[in-house]
Automatic annotation (TrEMBL):
Residues 98-117 form the C2HC RNF-type domain. Its EC number is 2.3.2.27. InterPro entries: Di19_Zn-bd, RNF_E3_ubiq-protein_ligase, ZF_C2HC_RNF, Znf_RING, Znf_RING/FYVE/PHD, Znf_RING_CS. SMART domains: RING. This is E3 ubiquitin-protein ligase RNF166.
Length: 237
């Protein structure tokens, strides 16, 4: 029991402090989700250990029978995961410099700012390209679709992850009557890049409540995926 308490105490010390003790330069890191490494978005806290994560980031852990905290690996009751209101309040109170243009931005708006910051986009474009760790005769992948970030089909705003795309479209294009192609669907192996949704907002809210990365193996084709799913279904029954 003493060791268990020691582990919990040690893990809690790694949580963001109550105030900006490290100055503006360290605020973004202090209020970043340990899973996605971005500033918290709709943060939730685990009751037993107190660790905080983006609500969406923690969702896969809540789908298993005996969830463990992704940070300290201690078991927790999924019914005792609550909205981290105190963290949301701090996100709306504190400002930190953008990692690209150095402009001070409220932490709660940092994700939106970064998605449109030209300096950040330039930094991302200059990131080292993929190279194998060891020599290989296999070709280096050059045409892998980007399934992590998307562009708004209405206004072209770029580098939006799935959650940010939903939020952006709901806030900025709720009344837009145009029929547009869903950038998430069109990036998938089975996607039709010419299909335009009659009601794109409803499509986003109902079709894309989860990330395909959690369930899909992109390395196999549709027929192989079907056979794998069928085999799994038969083994469970």
């Amino acid at each position: 029991m003493a060791m268990f308490r020691s582990l919990v105490a040690s893990a809690q010390q790694r949580q963001p402090p109550a105030g900006p003790a490290s100055g503006d330069s360290g605020l973004e890191a202090q209020f970043s989700c340990p899973i996605c490494l971005e500033v918290y978005y709709r943060p939730v806290a685990i009751g037993s250990c107190g660790h905080t994560f983006c609500g969406e980031c923690l969702q896969p852990c809540l789908q298993v029978p005996s969830p463990l905290c992704p940070l300290c690996r201690l078991p927790f009751d999924p019914k005792k995961v609550d909205k981290a209101s105190h963290v949301e309040k701090q996100l709306s109170s504190y400002k930190a410099p953008c990692r690209g243009c150095n402009k001070k931005v409220t932490l709660g708006k940092m994700r939106v700012h970064i998605s449109s910051c030209l300096k950040v986009q330039e930094q991302m474009a200059n990131c080292p390209k993929f190279v194998p760790v060891l020599p290989t005769s296999q070709p280096i992948p050059s045409n892998i679709p980007n399934r992590s970030t998307f562009a708004c089909p209405y206004c072209g705003a770029r580098n939006l992850d799935q959650q940010e795309l939903v939020k952006h479209c709901v806030e900025s294009h709720r009344s837009d009557p145009n029929r547009v192609v869903c950038p998430i669907c069109s990036a998938m192996p089975w996607g039709d890049p010419s299909y335009k949704s009659a009601n794109f907002l409803q499509h986003l809210l109902h079709r894309h409540k989860f990330s395909y990365d959690t369930f899909v193996d992109y390395s196999i084709d549709e027929e192989a995926a079907f056979q794998a799913a069928l085999a799994l279904s038969l083994s469970e029954n």
